[in-house]
Amino acid sequence: MFKGLSRNDLILLVGFTAFVLLMPIILKPVGAAYPALMQKFCIFGIFAIGFNILFGLTGYLSFGHAAFLGVGSYAAVWSFKLFTMNIIPAIFLSLFFAAIFAVVIGYVSLRRSGIYFSILTLAFAQMCYNLAYSVLTPLTNGETGLQLTLRDPRWIDAMFHEPGAGLPRATLFGLDTSGGGLGGFYLCAVILIICFYISMRIFRSPFGMMLRAIKSNQNRMRYTGFNTRPYLLAAFVISGMYAGLAGSLMAATDPLAGAERMQWTASGEVVLMTILGGVGTLVGPVVGAAVIKYFENIFSSFGPDTLHGVFSFLPDTIEDALVSFLSLFVGEGWNLTLGVIFVLLVIFMPGGIIEGLRRLWVIFTRKRDGGDAIPAATHPQPAE
Amino acid sequence: MSEKNIVLHVADVHKRFGGLHALADVDLQVEEGTVHAIIGPNGAGKSTLLNVCVGRIKPDQGQVVFAGEALNNHQPHEINQLGVSRVFQTPEIFADLSLLENVMIPAFAKRDGAFRFNASAPVSTQKDIREKAEAALEDVGLLNRRNVEAGSLSRGDKRRLELAMCLVQNPRLLLLDEPTAGMSRHDTNSTIDLLKRIKSRGMTKVIIEHDMHVVFSLADKISVLAQGRIIADGTPEAVRANPKVKEAYLGEEQT
Lengths: 384, 255
Fold this sequence. Notes:
The complex is a heterodimer of chains A (384) and B (255).
Chain A: H1 7-21, H2 23-26, H3 35-58, H4 66-82, H5 87-109, H6 114-135, H7 137-140, E1 146-147, H8 155-160, E2 171-172, E3 175-176, H9 182-204, H10 206-216, H11 218-223, H12 228-253, E4 256-257, H13 264-277, H14 284-301, H15 304-310, H16 316-326, H17 334-348, H18 352-369
Antiparallel strand pairs in A: 1-4, 2-3
Helix pairs in contact in A: 1-9, 3-9, 3-12, 3-13, 3-14, 4-5, 4-6, 4-12, 5-6, 5-12, 9-10, 9-12, 10-12, 13-14, 13-18, 14-17
Chain B: E1 6-17, E2 20-31, E3 35-39, H1 46-53, E4 61-66, E5 69-70, H2 76-82, E6 84-87, H3 99-112, H4 127-140, H5 155-167, E7 173-177, H6 185-199, E8 204-208, H7 212-218, E9 221-226, E10 229-234, H8 236-241, H9 243-253
Parallel strand pairs in B: 3-8, 3-9, 6-7, 7-8
Antiparallel strand pairs in B: 1-2, 1-4, 4-5, 9-10
Helix pairs in contact in B: 3-4, 3-5, 4-5
């Protein structure tokens, strides 16, 4: 199973696994060790890993991946409503529907490259959003979002036991995953590790090498005898399925689905996560996802009151001015902070967090060897 | 024409770009196993002719027949799969990949070109492909730099890398668009030596070149293209003696 992976890859895999499984302990000091947040890290980590398979390897920037996330969520909730609260069928159904959507959207969008590809994916995602928000209300429950009700048939569950009072919870053969406890977190963590492993295999495989070659020079690839379209479509569908899986885990940890999951801001967020962490690196997207979700959690909970608390040592006039300025950047406006961080990062650390750490590492080790030059950062390549 | 096996037949090809008649009634036959040089002044349509051969440009009229198969409706990758590889005028390589990867990818093309979800065995376990790629890098003298990123190579080395990428496919027909342009005299000579060495493998080559030194040391046959027409065709000696050629080309631009 691990044949052919280099020693470094195995170390990375083991380290990653250990870190993810031990997050409840490791993240205690930074105040992020509660399940609801950690499972967000995992879910968005999966989303970003999948996105990176498309964007990082082929250079095709999709602006519509949230559509697959939403499709995954809706499919999972329907599975809960119609069949069973067990999450296994829900996950498979999500993967299936996300794959179908990805095949259709990818087939059309991949006829173009560069900015036109991005616009096409964005257009498709907005179409999906509008379908979910209004047109397909019977299927998606529109604005309210799709939720479990007491009148759901749940045919498979009904065969085995009488429905209890109140809404049931999503389970994995008895393990409660939607209760906000560690069950949901460990489910997401294990799936994240599997997803990471699969992505590593893809990165190291001939298939991954072909994708990188397409990113580097698609023209040469064609004159080398490769039909690039099916390769791109395969990458697109795989990354769409990752997004669908992330969507279904959202539903598994909180059984509802809303159209806002498909909005373009959600698509943009995964782009930010991937770039922030490091495009085309293995761990970068997960790091980016965790960092964004962590800071979102902190900054969005700040309000003017918290700020007044922080700056209470200042004279009143300065305090009020400062607070009214800074409160633009917290709470609802935390995206403004994200924007600032993002701008700084793209300018000063174009390879993302992982590239930045690598450069620091090089500086650190070179100093000891008495070396001088720092290799230039590999700048992210624009698509075609 | 002799009874030799014609591997590439460009039959009465016309191509216009707006008002420019880039190729006018070009008819060219390339025999299997020969080195066929196409020369001509700038703008004569040499590169257009190669582009037509690899499917980059569709001819307005006429057709290109490779090994008995008309190429008009083939995609570039299909033409490559039939056995035509091409070296471009400006090297087309995978700049972000290592030299070894650059040459391994073409070696995969025969098997995986149409599409293969080849993700079970990592690249590092593909011994046979790796050995092929290393042999091709050895041929062009770049083996010791196999792990270098291709984008960091000099222009001349990029050309040699691209040549290795074509050689590893062992194509039936190799198209070379000015393989020595921008090379030093030393590099040019080593490229000539290399091309002479691989000549013995029976690979047919069509070569576009400005450097007459290269042309006359390699070519078995020469066609002269001027203003989109073939004005002379034959052995190097015959072409050299042809007064029309002297007028159109050799007289004004001999290097």
